[in-house]
Amino acid sequence: MGQALHHPNIGPYDENLLPLVIESAWYDVGGQNLINGLDLRIESPDITVIMGSNGAGKSILLRLIHGLLELTSGAIKWGGKATDNRLRQQQSLVFQKPVLLRRTASQNLDFVLKLPQNRRLKRGPNSSTSAQLLKMVGLHDKANQPARSLSGGEQQRLALARALATRPKVLLLDEATASLDPASISIIENIVLEQKALGVKVIFVTHDLAQAKRLADEVVFMSRGRVLEHSKATEFFLHPKTEVANAYLSGTLSVEETHQ
Amino acid sequence: MQDILQSLLLAANLVLSGDSDLFEIIGLSLRVSLSAVIYSIFLGLPLGSLIAVGNFRGRQALMIVLNALMGLPPVVVGLVVYLFLSRSGPLGWMELLYTPTAMIIAQVILITPIVAALSQEILSQLFEEYDEQFRSLNVPRWVAVRALLWDARFNLVTVGLAGFGRAVAEVGAVMIVGGNIDHLTRVMTTAIALETSKGNLALALALGLILITISLLVNAGLFLVKTRSQKQKFG
């Protein structure tokens, strides 16, 4: 694996994105409330892990935070401002299933580096090239390989490199290591930790308890579209406040309880 | 059976001897159909792209109209173009009736909906796959369209070839607006119709064989392009 990139905060914008404040957020689809009057305030600049069982609304919350979905009602504010294109340019989202262009690995990165809004990044003193990004995720020898012919783990690492190409201030990961090989998980986790050290705010959705324990500084625990707990990671794992979280951590949370 | 065999031999002789009339007809056929495909791509691709990535009122209606136009009866298109280009028609002053240009216009009208509808389908599928990622990356709409066209290029080649297949095999419209004039607007399909009615089966069969060969070559090319792109994971 290669070196971490230069400090991401020396980007095109110099805004303070924290705290992230979500107030009375509702998100309905087809008459079903997927997010139920959710309130959350994230101030910590470290790694926030969002946990909860299937259908808890974790991925939807991440998309709402990133501005890919629009709230039915309520508000989401980054540093006091609603998410718009300009704010989204300072964030990167890595999806569970990477969507890669039908091009080579390096062309996938060049596509992002050459976007009009990223051109000034390229000219800057901390500019990164596709070769550097590939090296960072351990894919420097796959630069000319079609992205879609890479293994699942390699594709996700490429997706992470692409997410970091814009030098985001906020890195959002939606179960980005689900069903990947241990080597890829380790590479991705190391990069996430490096990004945290560089001052990038990381919000990581995961099902993997061991991974959450390795990465989390604080945990947001969700159930049925609401935040049940928001606490320091050590506190959450040792002394969960709610029965649902306790059952989730001990692996005894039933499907009925999660969907009640 | 004897007649068919005899005609086949005569046909082979015409092809192998390099009959000038035959090759003139083939040349004009290819010129008209290729020109029509090129113009249709210039018109149909932007239209297909617009419908694929656009979010505007009437998009669904436009898709329905486009799909309906794919099945336009060639003779009706020929008749309409004839009415427009005839001396008393609104475009009669251009004096295009019974020229290869008139045939190209008719074929463009026939093929453009095919190119637009098929490309829209291909681009829509790809856009559905890329959309969330593109929005996350704040990809401007024009860059997204360019990326979709590039990434779908192998599939879009098949659209062009499908258009060419339709154009080169079409007879009704080109017969009406071209008039099947010897050495001027006679193409393979109109010549086959004429020579069959005259009983000149050898020439008709020779042209038919060449038409089928061209069709086979086009389809083989289409197959190769698709297989190669899929093998390389670019398709």
Number of helices of chain A: 11
Strand order across the largest sheet of chain A: 6-7-8-3-9-10
Q: Could you name the CATH topology of chain A?
A: Rossmann fold
Q: Could you tell me the number of beta strands of chain A?
A: 10
* CATH-level-2 architecture of chain B: Orthogonal Bundle
CATH homologous superfamily identity of chain B: MetI-like
- What order do the helices and strands of chain A follow? EEEHEEHEHHHHEHEHEEHHH
**Structural class by secondary-structure content of chain A:** alpha/beta
What is the name of the CATH architecture of chain A? 3-Layer(aba) Sandwich
Low-confidence stretches of chain A: 1-14
The interface involving the most residues is between: A-B, 23 and 18 residues
Mean pLDDT of chain A: 88
What is the name of the CATH topology of chain B? MetI-like fold
Q: Count of helical segments of chain B?
A: 10
Average of per-residue pLDDT values of chain B: 91
Notes on the structure:
The complex is a heterodimer of chains A (260) and B (235). In chain A, 35% of the residues lie in helices and 23% in strands. By secondary structure, chain A is α/β, with parallel strands linked by helices. Chain A has one domain: Rossmann fold (3-Layer(aba) Sandwich). In chain A, the strands form two sheets. A six-stranded mixed β-sheet of chain A has the order 6-7-8-3-9-10, sandwiched between helices. In chain A, a hairpin with a 2-residue loop joins strand 4 and strand 5. In chain A, helix 3 runs parallel beside helix 6. In chain A, 46% of the residues are buried. Chain B is built from ten helices and no strands. Chain B has one domain: MetI-like fold, CATH 1.10.3720.10. Chain B is mostly helical and 235 residues long. The N and C termini of chain B lie far apart (46 Å). Classes of the chains: A alpha/beta (260), B mainly alpha (235). At the A-B interface, loops of A face helix 5 and helix 6 of B.
